User: Which sequence fits this backbone?
């Protein structure tokens, strides 16, 4: 449920960001088609990185915690690593494109958040490679830091995507009425999937009676046993 709390905070921040009033673009600024393409490419790379690959990678490693087969666990673990490293690579390409092609005065929120976000993205794989073995005392602290940092990267990254879309409209005056709702639907859907897999085992257990569970007196009713004599009526049965 802690991860769900983080997701709720992220969604609230995103909705607050998207609800901000959009300023009127300055028509005096003419942007070249090449610049517009580079801005779109930059946004797509960051979405693919922190908006898709990283959340999917987190979902994969969480699913692996419930897998018993060691071979399947190993496959899921390496899939997690591949998704996360691909996300880091795409974020690096997006950052390099921004440094080379865009003005980086860091005078707006999108650039400031992006700089801090890229630092966290670089730190996350380093922390991942320093993973202690299971049973070591420092393993719990490492897991907490790795999990919190990964969750923070995803939420902050999604927020910065919204900020980037806002800045794109400010520069180009091109409508984003289709892409903004689609991105919001994706955020809500991925949050729901993470919540569902987190509680899936609990949901399945609701229809099962575990042997360890104590049967309450309310579950026992007195019924007549057919085919028996009247002297043997009234045997208790569990429904």
Assistant:
């Amino acid at each position: 449920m802690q991860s769900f709390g983080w997701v709720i905070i992220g969604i609230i921040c995103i909705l607050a960001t998207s609800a901000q009033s959009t300023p009127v673009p300055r028509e005096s600024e003419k942007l070249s088609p090449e610049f517009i393409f580079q801005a779109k490419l930059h946004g797509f790379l960051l979405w693919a990185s922190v908006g898709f690959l990283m959340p999917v990678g987190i979902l994969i490693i969480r699913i692996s915690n419930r897998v018993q087969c060691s071979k399947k666990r190993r496959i899921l673990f390496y899939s997690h690593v591949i998704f996360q490293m691909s996300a880091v690579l795409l974020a690096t390409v997006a950052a390099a494109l921004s440094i080379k092609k865009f003005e980086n005065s860091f005078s707006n929120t999108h650039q400031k958040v992006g700089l801090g976000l890229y630092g966290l993205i670089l730190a996350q794989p380093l922390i991942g490679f320093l993973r202690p073995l299971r049973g070591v005392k420092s393993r719990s602290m490492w897991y907490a830091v790795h999990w919190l940092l990964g969750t923070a990267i995803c939420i902050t990254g999604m927020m910065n995507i919204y900020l980037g879309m806002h800045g794109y409209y400010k520069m180009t005056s091109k409508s984003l009425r289709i892409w903004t709702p689609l991105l919001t639907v994706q955020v809500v859907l991925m949050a729901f999937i993470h919540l569902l897999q987190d509680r899936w085992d609990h949901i399945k257990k609701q229809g099962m009676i575990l042997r360890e569970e104590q049967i309450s007196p309310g579950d026992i009713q007195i019924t007549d046993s057919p085919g028996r004599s009247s002297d043997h009526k009234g045997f208790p049965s569990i429904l």
About this structure: The chain is about 70% helix and 5% strand. Residues 196 and 203 are 9 Å apart (CA to CA). Confidence is low (pLDDT under 50) at residues 1-5, 15-28, 232-239.
